Structure formats: structure tokens, C-alpha cells
Amino acid sequence: xxxxxxxxxxxxxxxxxxxxxxxxxxxxxxxxxxxxxxxxxxxxxxxxxxxxxxxxxxxxxxxxxxxxxxxxxxxxxxxxxxxxxxxxxxxxxxxxxxxxxxxxxxxxxxxxxxxxxxxxxxxxxxxxxxxxxxxxxxxxxxxxxxxxxxxxxxxxxxxxxxxxxxxxxxxxxxxxxxxxxxxxxxxxxxxxx
Length: 193
Known about the structure:
alpha+beta; five-stranded antiparallel beta sheet; single chain
């Protein structure tokens, strides 16, 4: 799915993770939220804000698969209709979710891009590249985290590792949220004799 890295991306692949202090602060805040009664959308919003801040991306969105396997926006860095529509467009999000791998489009203006309609819409909105990683839960994918940037090849391998870490944490948060809701429902329906 992902095209081969160019020389600039290959050089960045050996770099250490960017802004590791910011990443650690974000992880500590997230773990703290998970240890208490938390709002799922607020948790995902916090992860997306950390994602764009650390990687320098323009926008990001977290999409969750519904019962039919269709992706729905759960949280995004902007509530603009243009971004929300773009995130649900056939493109890197859906491919990352289905393939359970990272999908990269480092230059949406290049010939032969996998999703011409997505690329055209994203370019018109001011984005030059798009990346998506699956929300992994064990061996399954429950959605995707998509990152959009205004310059070509804006994210390298270290950035994508951070994006995947944040996506994995979001997946754990989603699973915990669902488990807590199921537990609460079972407690309400249990009536001792």
C-alpha cells in the first residue's frame, strides 16, 4: 500500500522520535485519564492534539468502524465540514483500517496517487500529504487515525511511529470504554434473589 520511501524519508527513518518529552507528557496524561471515569471523545481529542503538536501536522482525525465496517469520525482537530468530509472519504483511512498497516501518501499532487478524488479534495483544502495508521486492538483494527499536512513528505518514520503509538492508546481507550459500559449495563440488569 505505502509507496517506497524517498531519500529524505529514508534519512529521517533513523532519527530518534521527535519531541520525546512532549510525547511522554501526553502519555502520562492519557494513562491518568484511563485510570478514572473518562470521556472517550475527550481522550481521543487529547491524543489528536498531541499527534499534530508533536509531528507538526496540520490536522488529524480518528475514525471508528461501525458494525458494518464503515468508518465514522469520532474526533478531529477541527470541526470544519470540509475536514470531516475528507476524513470519511475513500482514501488512506479506509485502506489503513482494512489492511491493518500504515498507509502513506507523501505527495497528493504526484501522478499515480491511489485515491485521485481524495487527493483532489485534500489538495483543494490545502493538504499536500496524508498518512493513516490502524487503530490496532490485538490483531484486529477498529478504525484508523489519519494525519494531514500542508507540505509534501511532512512526516518521516519517527513521526509515524508516534502516530501509531497514539493510535494504539486510542484503541485501548475505546476497548476500555466499551468494557466499562458493558459492565455498568450488566450490574444494572443483575437482581439478586
